[in-house]
Amino acid sequence: MSLTNRDLKVIWHPYTQMKTALPPIPIVRGEGACLFDENGKKYIDAVSSWWVNIHGHAHPYIAQKVSEQLKKLEHVIFAGFTHEGAVELAERLLEILPNNQQKVFYSDNGSTAVEVAIKMCLQYWHNNGENRTKIIAFKNAYHGDTFGAMAVSGRSAFTAAFDSLLFEVEFIDLPDAANIKSLKSHISNLTSETACFIFEPLVQGAGGMLMYEAQYLNELMAHCRKEGILMIADEVFTGFGRTGKSFASNHVTEQPDIMCFSKGLTGGTMALGLTTCTQQVFDAFLSDDRLKTLFHGHSFTANPVAISAALASLDLFLDASTTENIKRIENAHGQFARKIKDHPKVKTIRQTGTILAMEWQTGSDTSYFNSLRDSLYRYFLEAGIILRPLGNTIYILPPYCITNEELDCVYSKIEQALEEI
């Protein structure tokens, strides 16, 4: 029996309607920006395998560091114990994050990093004797698939089956020149009951790669700061260079109180999440009263092997060549966007850093369930390119090691698709 048939017999895949989806493609190895299936066919991974891979597949340096760690310590309970890797990663990250971030809390994926952040904010006010439970978030947000993360995500088909079970959230529009004044006024009216404001800085990923300007986010953050509202920057997707700077929060001068990370944290090698916070947030939990403890943890919190991958990825990320590659991809995206922006099938095209998104003109509203998605997905797979459209929105989000030739191949196939589909 083939691997595909064995898979279909026993596996339930994520975000997949198993009755109608294409059979899964067995991948046997990766190298650089490419993946290879069991028949030797090469695929350019133009979406970084769900946005996690920033340095390329099977990177030898990360593999070496993971191998070395496995021979020393695979895991240790992180309640009451610690290890060198966990301390070193926290120290090194805090050096490059906004300078108000002072503490690191480890978890194991993006959704749980967000869950931790939400619990920190809600319990912060509880520990301080204030009843603030309302959370402000953007419409069309996506923060994860666990219940707290779903609650602060925009209501959609993703959450429909659970909407009645999700806590109430105040959803607001993305800020721009026309609405910033009214948004600030609206937030002021909610201040006394608001615990926090959570946002994906500059780019809403799963919402359709929706982008907004840093200056208006900064103005909104400054207003929240004035009103005493805690702020959570969800950098699970945007962190580690995706927006052209190390972190999307580097595009603004205001600083969040809490930040969430995962995806590119380990270079796409394995699962790890973390949440950072200010000393002020941390101090609200310091007490002789054990009931003020943050009661949250995971069996694999601060797993030494995952952290060894993160440390190796950080080494590569801070190397000058990575900065050069990010700028190279950014420039290439810009040139391609200018080339096709006036094509009649291009509804809109937008770019932030290494993220390029294009909405396909279909004569109907942009939608995650637009039927064009399946045609585009199949078209690019046949051409040896992994592009996973969000409905009729195509986006390119490659590993930083992608070559100019591989980028040109992706661009060329998109141009070809514009003529053929």
Question: Can you give a write-up of this model?
Answer:
- The protein has 13 helices and 16 strands.
- Helices cover 36% and strands 17% of the residues.
- The protein folds into 2 domains: 3-58 and 322-420, Aspartate Aminotransferase, domain 1, CATH 3.90.1150.10; 64-317, 3-Layer(aba) Sandwich (Aspartate Aminotransferase, domain 2).
- The chain has helices at residues 3-10, 48-51, 60-70, 84-96, 110-127, 147-151, 180-190, 214-227, 279-283, 304-317, 320-340, 372-382, 404-420, and strands at 27-31, 34-37, 42-45, 101-107, 134-138, 170-172, 194-199, 203-204, 210-211, 230-234, 258-261, 273-278, 346-352, 355-360, 385-386, 393-396.
- It has a 7-stranded mixed β-sheet, with helices on both faces. The chain has a 4-stranded mixed β-sheet with strand order 1-2-3-15. The chain has a 3-stranded antiparallel β-sheet with strand order 13-14-16, covered by helices on one side.
- With 421 residues, the protein is an alpha/beta fold.
